[in-house]
Predict the structure.
Amino acid sequence: APYQEAIAALPEYSDVRVTLGDRVEVHIENLSGKEAEQIKESALLMKPWRKGPFMINDLFIDSEWQSQIKYNLLEPHFDLKEKIVGDIGCNNGYYLFRMQEDMPKLLVGFDPSPIYKTQFDFINHFVKSDIVYELLGVEHLEFYEEKFDIIFCFS
């Protein structure tokens, strides 16, 4: 509950630029010092960040895994354009955010961990993606209504 409350208390921003590269970067124009501190406190509340890295203005959110290394090795072999893609064990959605560059039809992440869902919600508060995040595990995949063209398990 404290994590979701922290996200709900964040202001909405209309002038946001997102860069999808080794870091998922969010740049908010005219961010006040008070707002930057609120964002920092919220991000720190949600530690540990296992996958990433992320950046919001000057706030670097490092992660236990440098996920860009694996992603950059695999990405040249993807063909995600107009595909329905599932990411099993998506954690906080780092790979899902990165996959947006390839213009898939739909991105769906599965992970049963509420802390990772909250980290996703925190980043997506700024990114405002159409990614679907399901609090479900791999054992639920067969019951999921969407049929996937590609399924990843990056773990």
